[in-house]
Structures are given as C-alpha cells and as structure tokens.
Specification:
Length: 458
C-alpha cells in the first residue's frame, strides 16, 4: 500500500511540509480530551514518533475510538504541518485501523525491564530500545560487508553442517535424521546409517574451510551463523551467534594485527556516522560516555603487549585476583578487565600465547613455547577477537595435531593445503554480537539477538 516512511518525513520535512501524506505504523501512546486526541505513531524506520493530531469535529467518532489503542496498526492520511512543540506533526484527515489490538497487549507501559522483554522476544522489536539495537545491528552488518568489499576480499559461504569441530572450541550440536530410539550395536554403524553416512554437526567456525578458499582466492571473509553447545549461562554466551572470519594469504601476525585494528576502527566509525540517533539514546540509556569511548577508539592506536609481559604486569599490579596469575594460565575475564580498563585504558592486543593453551593450527614461534597468536581485548567486554598466523609448515602442523591426539585422516583436506603450495597466511574471528555489545553498551548478549538461543531456552 502506498505510504511514506516516517523517517523520510523527518529527514526531508521541507519537501512534505503542508502537503497531504499517508503514513502507516503502530500506536506507541495516545492522549484524549473532549475536542482533540493525540497519537504517537512509529513505523520502525526511525526512533522518533510522529505525532498525529485528531480534531474530533473533523472526524467521525467511530473512526477515532478504535485507533486510540496502544499496539494497534494504523493507516493515516493527513496534512504534514509545522508544530511549535514537536517541529512537525500530522493533522489527521482520515484514519483506518489495519490491525486491532486487545487490552492484554503486554507493552502498555512506556518502559519495561529488559528481563521482562526477554520473555516476549516476538514483541520486543516494537519498543524503542530494541528498535535502536536492531538499527545499529543492521548498520554494523552493512559496515562489515562494506569494509571487506572495499578492500578486495571475496565473501564466501562456508558449510553450516560439517563433520569438523575446527579447534574444539565448544561442543557441537549434532545433526541427524535418525529416530530418537534408533538402536545399533556400534556407534559407527549408527552414523553409517545416518543421512551423510557419518557423524555431522552444526559448525562452530568456518575457519578451516575459509583457509582452503583463501589458498586460491587470496583473501576472503565469512560472515554467518555459528553454534556452540556450551553450558555457559552467562551474559556473554549464546548457543547461536554470528561470526566474522577473514583469512589472508601472504600475511604474518603483524600484518593481520594491522588489518584487525583498521577493521575495528572502520566499522565503529561507520556506526558513529550513520547511527547518531541510536548512539545518543544508548549514551543516555546504557552507558554514560559511550560516544566519547567510541570516538577515542577510532582516533587512538590500540595497545600491544606480549602474553609474558601481560602476566608480569598482572603479577606486579597489587590486585587480588580470584584466579592467580602464572605463566601458562589462560587469562580470565578479571585479568582482561584490568589490562584494558586500568592499565591500558583502551583496547589492547595480547600476543604470543603459550602453545599449550592455543589451537593446533597456530604458527609455532622459534622459542618452542609460544605461538604467533593474539587476542584483542576491549574494556567492558574482554576478548573480542581471536587471531593468529596459521602454521604453514606441513611437518610442524602434523606434529602439533599428533601431540593433541588428533586423527590426521579426519583433517586430510586441511593437511593438503600445507602439502600443495603452502604460504604464510593469517586470520581472525570476531563475535558479531560481542562487537554489537561494545558499540551499544548493551550488557547482555540476549539483547542483541532477535531470538536468542541459550542453554535451556529455545
């Protein structure tokens, strides 16, 4: 049906001023008096509501009353006029209820707790908060594609159903067509009779397939859903999330660190430029100083420190950590928070981790103890990027896999990439929702996803 988006009316108000326009949307609030009624209408194109002014003497009561209901959907024809209080408003000439709404509509109040809104994910996009979240999510997605496209990367789609658990980063969700009570004497017989004739699961990462693509295409990126069946019921974990994973050939660790920093700054700058309304709202609602924080990230160099240096900083900090710090331990959230929020006070790359706590595919450093890997840590979130130069030497790669009791036959395709024309190459993985949390100040990953999938909650 022909209508004008409310955002267009606000953005180009001079063009439409004193003209008759048609708008559609949902009633956010309304007020009524003897001679006049007001409706705040929103259509999802902007955080701003358009005020509708209904002069009762000009419109039949039978048209007005059904429209004065929070949540109902309307089509309205009226004159777009100046307003001393609101800047502009719509003087209603005709009104049609497209979809009525009963009194048990859960969003009657202006403000609801985020905990309550998580119980109605199908309705929460109609609130200002989630309209802002998903507006930034949209722009951030576009910024990511724009960055890689403008830098010559090819976008590839790696399998969602796979037989590889990549780095063993989390338990896989199993994919099967077998009956729930299928009975077999041996596990291999069970899988042999399944759809693929082998054990299959939902991907935890597209990295291994992405590396194969990069070996012919030079530099690629993936941006798609990944799945982790971890029982991590925290504010930072979800069972289904979106993952950005570039792979770049002829690129060492220092090169990929430069790429990662430029990438992060570029996408944040894009959101700052294109979502001022949403960020101003989050600056007030979620995190005071949010915009200043993001501007500082864009305009300053990130910190960089080796893992060994970071451990020494933590040990000399005088802080009483819940988890003691010793060389060889994995850094915990409290350690990451100290480094980013108190010591550096900005994002920081921690490099050259002990090989024993990192994945098999990471390039082994000459010291025999560490690997050419880095994590990007940011204030308030902790690790946001996991990054490494990949091991390009066939024999070193096989030795690392055997040391971890991995079956080489299961990774024959991956091994072939080192056998046939191997090159130095690097890549990183960025959790999209964690990046969104950092940019918006949202504190719970459940509030960045349309329908969050978490342990015990589908």
């Amino acid at each position: 049906m022909k209508h004008t988006d409310i955002k267009i009316l606000f953005d180009d108000s001079d063009k439409y001023l004193n003209a008759s326009v048609t708008v559609c949307g949902w009633v956010r609030t309304w007020r009524d008096s003897k001679s006049i009624a007001f409706i705040e209408l929103n259509d999802g194109t902007t955080l701003k509501n358009l005020q509708l002014v209904i002069e009762k003497e000009n419109l039949d009561e039978s048209l007005i009353k059904p429209a004065l209901v929070v949540g109902c959907a309307l089509r309205v024809v009226g004159k777009f006029i100046p307003s001393e209080r609101n800047g502009v408003e719509l003087s209603v000439e005709n009104i049609t209820v497209l979809g009525g709404c009963p009194q048990d509509y859960p969003l009657q109040k202006k403000h609801h707790t985020l905990e309550f809104l998580r119980t109605i994910p199908h309705l929460r996009p109609r609130t200002k908060y989630f309209e802002a979240v998903f507006g930034v999510r949209n722009q951030l997605s576009f910024a990511i594609h724009k960055y890689f496209n403008s830098h010559g990367y090819k976008y590839v789609h790696t399998p969602i159903i796979t037989g590889s658990d990549c780095e063993g980063a989390g338990e896989m969700f199993r994919v099967t067509t077998q009956s729930w009570d299928a009975k077999y004497a041996k596990e291999q017989d069970y899988y042999a009779d399944d759809f693929f004739g082998a054990k299959a699961g939902l991907t935890v990462s597209g990295q291994l397939e992405g590396e194969a693509a990069a070996m012919g295409l030079g530099k690629i990126y993936t941006f798609g859903p990944t799945f982790r069946a971890e029982h991590s019921n925290t504010t930072r974990h979800a069972a289904e999330f979106w993952h950005i994973e570039p792979e770049v050939c002829f690129c060492d660790l220092h090169d990929i660190i430069e790429i990662a920093e430029d990438f992060i700054k570029s996408i944040i700058k894009d959101v700052l430029e294109n979502c001022p309304e949403e960020l101003a709202y989050f600056n007030e609602r979620n995190e005071k100083g949010l915009i200043e924080k993001l501007q500082n990230v864009v305009s300053h160099d990130f910190g960089i420190i080796t893992y060994t240096e970071a451990v020494n900083v933590l040990k000399k900090s005088g802080k009483q950590f819940k988890y003691p710090v010793e060389w060889g331990c994995d850094l915990q959230t409290e350690h990451e928070k100290y480094l980013t929020e108190e010591y550096f006070k900005k994002p920081v790359f921690v490099t050259d981790y002990p090989a024993v706590i990192k994945s098999f595919y990471m390039k082994q450093n000459p010291d025999g103890k560490t690997v050419a890997a880095t994590d990007l840590l940011v204030p308030g979130i902790g690790e946001i990027i996991g990054c490494s130069e990949r091991e390009a030497d066939l024999e070193k790669l096989k030795a690392a896999m055997l040391q971890r009791n991995m079956t080489l036959d299961a990774y024959s395709d991956y091994i072939d990439s080192r056998k046939y024309g191997s090159v130095p190459h690097s890549g990183f993985g960025l959790g999209f929702e964690r990046m969104l949390m950092y940019i918006t100040g949202v504190q719970n990953i459940r509030d960045t996803l349309l329908y969050p999938r978490t342990v015990g909650s589908l």
